[in-house]
Amino acid sequence: MGVYEADVVVIGLGVGGEEVGGRLAAAGLDVVGIEGRLVGGECPYWGCIPTKMMIRGANLLAEARRVPGLAGSATVTPDWGPVAARIRDEATDDWNDKVAVDRFTGKGGRFVRGRGVLAGPRRVRVNDDEYAARRGVVLATGTAPSPPPVEGLAGTPFWTNREAVEVKTLPASLVILGGGAIGVELAQVFARFGVAVTVVERSDRLVAVEEPEASELAATALRGDGITVHTGATTQRVAYSEEGFVVSLSDGTTLRAEKLLVAAGRRAELDTLGLDTVGLDPSARSVATDEWMRAGDGLWAVGDLTGHGAFTHMAMYEADVAVRDILGQGGPPADYRAVPRVTFTDPEIGSVGLTEKQARDAGRAVTVGTAQIPASSRGWIHKVGNEGFIKLVAADGVLVGATSAGPTGGEVLAALTVAIAARVPVRQLRHTIWAYPTFHRALGDALRELG
After folding, report:
1. Distance (Å, rounded) from C-alpha 222 to C-alpha 303?
2. Tens digit of pLDDT per residue, the chain (451 long)?
3. pTM for the full model?
4. 58: left (phi over 0), alpha (psi -120 to 50) or beta
5. What three-state secondary structure class fits 409?
6. Which residue range forms the structural domain that includes residue 167?
7. How many domains does the chain have?
8. Is residue 73 part of a domain?
9. Cβ neighbours of residue 178 under 8 Å, at least 6 residues apart?
């Protein structure tokens, strides 16, 4: 075993870890970055980037089908081939991370391929070597798919998001377990390319972390694409044969499909990190951090494993906080009041801050304002594919939460994120000039409803 030194050791070079390691190396620190899979993490290879390419293709098909009655006629023939090719050529480089590795080492970082494990305070073991970190260690190992404990599921060739992204030839039918963001996005994609899709969600509504109105909108959109939706039903058994999958639900329903996609959650694999060697609980669901992303003396954690939201933008945000702390640069600590998220269905569902229920459960004196996108001038102009709404949640004279759902829901969300983060008074927002005719002008109608 070789023993080496470095200023900082980063375990996991996904989005957050690569950001931390690259910036610290560029600042002149001696940084060792350890990654056993692909540098860049889930987002560029199986998450954000390729799935949005899939969604782009699916939405183009939907828009073409909306041409009649507005701009003539159109004949649409779905073809998955260009989508699969684009994922390999433009997004994943056929799942090769050489470019990402070179990007990291080009900033001065030392790259080690392997699984890093804590071996004590400021010490990391990887392969047959050990590294002693003078300043400290950063944990950024992300999460992995967490299949539910369903009878008969283990050992079957079910898909996770990875197999769904890598597929070259689409199945005729697909059952999706999980109606969260990943499940509903992929359901709509495959349905628009001609796959018979069924979604099973154990909660009583889809995208259950969102406002009830958003769940209703998502269910309506999916059913409009021919998707069968089962909510409030748990999966009791799964069987597999050459003929495909058989899925038995708690309500007595039996589903049959060629493929099965499990999109029912992810978990941080903390039990493999050696957390006990630094006094942390390896059985915990996440790594607890303070406002500077410190998880202990000489230990920081960023990204999915902190439990603050499994988003690329969260990993980047926390990476920035950790980098500034390690370099002693100051600036604001982590603030989670205005965390945005977008479910990239059609219509898009964007949200930031608290839901109405969360705000009321926190004891806030809440007022709510809503506006319907089809009733806005831009929604009326858009005519088809114009479903959506804006919902604002206010307390103590400022917005504390908001949902923006519609054709450009994720883009309209930007103004609401700034308003919550900056604590812009509602009275000032009411007197803001909103460009006409835009989707975001509906903000004015929702603000007037706040009273």
Report:
1. 30
2. 789 999 999 999 999 999 999 999 999 999 999 999 999 999 999 999 999 999 999 999 999 999 999 999 999 999 999 999 999 999 999 999 999 999 999 999 999 999 999 999 999 999 999 999 999 999 999 999 889 999 999 999 999 999 999 999 999 999 999 999 999 999 999 999 999 999 999 999 999 999 999 999 999 999 999 999 999 999 999 999 999 999 999 999 999 999 999 999 889 999 999 999 999 999 999 999 999 999 999 999 999 999 999 999 999 999 999 999 999 999 999 999 999 999 999 999 999 999 999 999 999 999 999 999 999 999 999 999 999 999 999 999 999 999 999 999 999 999 999 999 999 999 999 999 999 999 999 999 999 999 7
3. 0.96
4. alpha
5. helix
6. 161-264
7. 3
8. no
9. 199, 200, 201, 262, 263, 264, 265
Rounded to whole angstroms, the Cα distance separating 74 from 66 reads 9
- The tokens describing 107, both together, are 């900033």
Bridge-based pairing state of the strands 235-241 and 244-249: antiparallel
Q: 17 with 134, same domain?
A: yes
Residue 417 phi/psi, 5° resolution? Answer: -65, -45
In a domain, 412, yes or no: yes
Q: Do residues 31 and 133 share a domain?
A: yes
Asked if the structure places residue 406 within a domain, the reply is yes
For residue 241, count CB atoms less than 10 angstroms from its CB and return exposed for 0-12, middle for 13-18, buried for 19 or more: exposed
213 and 116 part of one domain: no
Is the same domain home to 132 and 208?
no
**Per-position b or e across 24-55, b if 16+ CB within 10 A of its CB:** bbeeebbbbbbbebbbbbbbbbbbbbbbebbb
Whose CA is closest to 348, among 39, 139, 58?
Answer: 58
Q: Do residue 361 and residue 406 come from a single domain? A: yes
Domain identity same for 102 and 193: no
With respect to residue 68, please indicate whether it lies within any of the assigned structural domains.
Answer: no
